[in-house]
User: Fold DUF2066 domain-containing protein from Vibrio porteresiae DSM 19223.
Amino acid sequence: MRYLALLLMGLISIPASALTKVDLYQTEVVLDSQQQDSDDDARLRGMEQVIVRATGNSASLDNDVIQKALHQNSQYLTQISSSQKNGQQTVKLGFSAPHIRSLLTQAQLPFWPEYRANLLVWLVEDNNFDRSVIWEHSDAPLLQSLQAEAQLRGLPITIPVGDFDDITGIQTSDLWGGFTGPIAQASLRYPTDGVLVIRAQGDSLRWTLYDQNAQQMANSTKEPINGDASGDEAMQQLIDAVSQYYAQKNAVLIASQSSQYVLADFSGLKNAQDFFTLEKTLSALSSVAALDVLSIQGDQVEYKVHLLATPTDFEQEVMRTKQLEEVDMMGVPMSDMKANTASETSTSIAPAITSPVASATMQDALLDNPLSTTASAAIPTADTNVMVDGQDSSTMTKTDSAPQMLYFKWLN
Assistant:
């Protein structure tokens, strides 16, 4: 019995894991009343925020695939509503989790899972050598900036409450001097996964990150991570650096085969110049995420085309280039086939029954609306066991049908 009691006491003394689930796909953007297209701008900025939060790296916005998708943000939007925040008009935006994850797959960007380490943040401010700890209930601008930037990046933080135990448990000089023992002791009461100490002096910030809980800090030989930032965007720089550290540590790269794609065969290529021109033309299309060459034989090349839109959108974009025409698998132009079909139809009586062609047309119409339930279900998601919208993605609907094959002829 005595051993059982000791075991229970030992378990109680170990802080529980503080992993926090972050809502990656909801955001709120302040409307710029001075801008003519303020709604479009708000949707663009909202999707940018979601991409950065999901990847943990602001550099992800420079990705070519992401740049294309940002200008097609309505395909990823699931919710939009007006609101007010601090006297300013805002727009609340919700984005589709499966579609954002599929986009990151297509862009070959890592995904920072929504269950993230929670950091206990000790914030100390120096005003003319008068140093004080900023507690949770403070209305200090520095704390507001910290909380806003952390929320924007999806970095869970906890601020000490500043009660009697906090005030008597830590000296400001211990935090400013970076004495690990006292900091660890004062942090024990908070079940967090790491401890971040920020020292503010004017517009300069110095920070130290202990990537371990307080229980481990006291006896650990692991070196903390130090950094500094200055200027008007010092807090943003600090949160960016810490977020990117955890994103690189915990992010996962989802296999590329989970993205939506079609197979496309291109014939009539006379030389290497035609091949490179074709590839450059296809890569520039807004519906194309990436190209994989499957085979090259004679004057033909076959691609696996990873899509950011529907196959119909891809077909239409290809035809608008005026450098290609769509053909059947025998090389007969589709325009000729459509003309013959129209001629035959004009001299015949249409059947009264519903045909499979009508059903296919309906499916195309649904696919043209990315926000419809059918369209969302038809787009495959990443084949991982990470939770998506509260559901294990391994149980989500996948597209089992054979990939679509399209045929085109190069006209140059």
